[in-house]
Amino acid sequence: MKAIIPTVLFMLIGLSLQAGSFMAETSDTDCREAKIYDMFELSNALKVENDLLSGVWTFGASPEKTTVYRFRNHGLLEIVRAESTGEPQYDSYMWRVEEYNNQAFLVLTTNDFQHEYLYQTLPTCQGMVLVDPVSIDQISLTYNVDAPSEQQKQINNRLLGVWENATYPYRLTNSFEECGTFEPIEGAYLKYRFNSDGTFVRSFGSHLVQMEETGYYEIFEEGQYVVFHVQQDDGNFSHHVARIKYLEYGELVLEQTLESDTDDFAAFFCSDLNTVSFIK
User: Fold this and answer.
1) Residue 98 phi, psi (nearest 5)
2) Contact assessment for residue 166 and residue 277, using Cβ atoms and an 8 Å cutoff
3) DSSP 248
4) Cα distance between residue 116 and residue 109, in whole Å
5) In whole angstroms, what is the distance from residue 191 CA to residue 202 CA?
6) Phi-psi group of 207: left, alpha or beta (phi > 0 → left; psi -120 to 50 → alpha; rest → beta)
7) CB count, 10 Å around CB of 117?
8) What whole-number distance in Å separates Cα of residue 166 and Cα of residue 279?
9) pLDDT tens digit string along 92-146?
10) Do 118 and 112 meet the contact criterion of CB atoms below 8 Å apart?
11) Dihedral sign, CA of 150, 60, 143, 68?
12) In Å, what is the CA distance from 35 to each residue of 22, 54, 72, 105?
C-alpha cells in the first residue's frame, strides 16, 4: 500500500479530532445501522473502507445543489455535483483508506497522479465527516442505501426507448470563438435510445452529418442525474452528466452541456448549459 502523504504526517500528531463518534451515537433513534464498526477484528481503515463501499453518499442544502459520492470497489470514486452556474459536473478520483495513529484517512488521487488529497474520516450516525487535517475544513456526507429506490426503478422504466428532440438542441452564437452556428442547422436532431441492459445510443447531427455515440448510463441520486459513460475508440470512456428536469410517459426534459471529443461536434453540435425537451 502506498504510504500516506508524508508532508502532513507531522500535523496529524497534534490533531485533536477523534473518531468513534458513530459508536457514541448508536442510541440515537435516527442512527443508521453500520454493524461493520462492531467487527473488532477489522482495522479502522478496513471498517471505513467497507462503510464507504456500502452506500451512496450525498451532501447539499437542496436537490439542485446536491453532490453525490459513489465509492467503487475497484478503487474509483465518482462524484456528480452542480457548478455554481447550475451545470451538472462529473469528476473521478482513485481512492484508498490508510491508517495512522489508529485513525483512518481517505486519500484521493487525481487520474493524472499529480495531486493527492487527504481527509480524516469520522463516521457518524447519519453518515461520514471528512476533515482536511491542514485547514480543518469539513465535508459532512449523508449515508444512503446503495440500492435502487422505487423512484429510480420508475425512472429507469420510463427512460427506456427512443427519445427525439422536440426543441432545437444546439447553440446559436454570434462569436467565431464559441462553439455553435450563426443560424439554426437545417435538419438538426439529437436522439437518445435507452436500452434495458443499461446501454444507450446518442445520435446527433443534421441532414448532411450524422454521428453516433454509445456507452452505458447510470441514474444518480433519486433520479436527479443521469450519467453517460461514452465509449471511445481506444476503449476508454468519457463522462457526461445531464439533469433530469422532467420525466413522464412520452415526455423528457434534460438540462445538460452538450460536448464531445469529436472535432465536428465541438465545432457545430454543441451547447453551453441548455434545456432540451424530448418526446418518445
Assistant:
1) -125, 160
2) yes
3) E
4) 4
5) 6
6) alpha
7) 14
8) 6
9) 999 999 999 889 999 999 988 999 999 999 999 999 999 999 999 999 999 988 8
10) no
11) positive
12) 11, 11, 20, 20
